[in-house]
Write a structure and sequence with these properties.
Elements (H helix, E strand, L loop, with lengths): L5 E6 L3 E7 L5 E8 L4 H11 L5 E5 L2 E3 L4 E4 L6 E3 L1 H9 L5 E3 H12 L8 E6 L3 E7 L2 E2 L30 H5 L1 H14 L4 H8 L8 H6 L4 H25 L3 E5 L7 H11 L6 H4 L3 E4 L6 H6 L2 H4 L7
Parallel strand pairs: 1-4, 4-8, 9-12, 12-13
Antiparallel strand pairs: 1-2, 2-3, 5-6, 6-7, 9-10, 10-11
Helix pairs in contact: 1-2, 5-8, 8-9
Length: 312
Amino acid sequence: MPGSLRLGIDLGGTTAKLGIVDQDNRIIHRAAIPTADAFNQAVRDMADAAEGLARDAGVPSMINPKTGRMVFANNTGWENAPIREALKAHLGIPVLAANDADCALAGEAAAGAARGMRDVLMLTLGTGVGSALLIEQRLYTGGDGMGMEMGHLPLIAGGWPCTYGARGCLEAYVSATGLIRLTEETMAAHPDSAMHAHIQMEGGKVTGRTAFACAEQGDAAALSVVDTYCAWLAQGIGGLVSVCRPELVILGGGISRAGEPLFVRVRAMAEQFVFAHHLIGAPAIVPAQLGNDAGIVGAANLGQTLGQQSLY
C-alpha cells in the first residue's frame, strides 16, 4: 500500500481514538471522541469523526473478524452488533474489524516490537487478558474467527472465577484484576507490610502497581506477590509457547509497564515451562513498543495481517 493513507479506529468503552496512518505507519493526524452508549449513535459519531480520515476499525470485544460482528462487548453491552457493515454504510469505504488484542499485535507487527517477524504471540495484561497470534505474518483467528482467547485457558483447576463464569483461567490470575486480588489478600495477611502505607499515599486504592512499587523497596510481602504473579504468568506463557512455538512473545497492557522487575522474573521462570527448552531454546519475551498507539496503527494495517490487501 505504498503512498496510501489509512484510518485506524481504536474503539474503547469510554473513548474512540482515530488516527490517519501514513505509509511509514506514522500517525499524522488523530482525534478522540466519547463512545456513545447506543450502538447506532456510536457508529454515527465515529463516521462523522472519520470524515476525511478513513479505513479500518479495532474493537475491545469478542469480535469475529470474518463476519465483522461484535459477538459481545463487555464495556458497552452490545451483542451481535454489525460494526463493520454499519461503518461501511456510513463511510462508503472498505472496513475491516478485529478485537483490540489482534489490532495491538497488528500494530506491533507493522511498526513495533514484532516488525519483520513471522510468528509472534502477544498478551495484553489489563483488566482482562487479551491475546493474539501471528502465524506466517497473518493473524490467526481460528476456523470460525473466534479463536485465540488464550486468557481463558485453564491454569489452576477450580481456582478463582473469571469474567465468563469458568474457574481457574489464566485471565483470573494474570490480569490486573487477578494481581489486585492477590495483593489485597496478601496485605490482609500482612498488616505490617509497606503496601498499607503505600496505598494511603496513592489515594487509598490497591492497583496493579502497588506490589511492584513496594517490592522495589524490599518489602517482603510485596516481593511474595510479585514473585507469585510472575510465576503464574510465566507458567501460562511457557505452556502457550510449547503449543505454538513463536519467534517472539510480546507483553503489552498496563501491567507490562512494570518494566524490568516484571520481565526479568518472567524470562527466568518461563523457560522451565517450555517443552524441550534445553534442546531447542525458548523465544525472547519483550515489552510492546507502541503503547496506546498500537490499536490505531494495527487497525490501519488489518488488510495485511488478515490477508485482505485486495480491499485497498
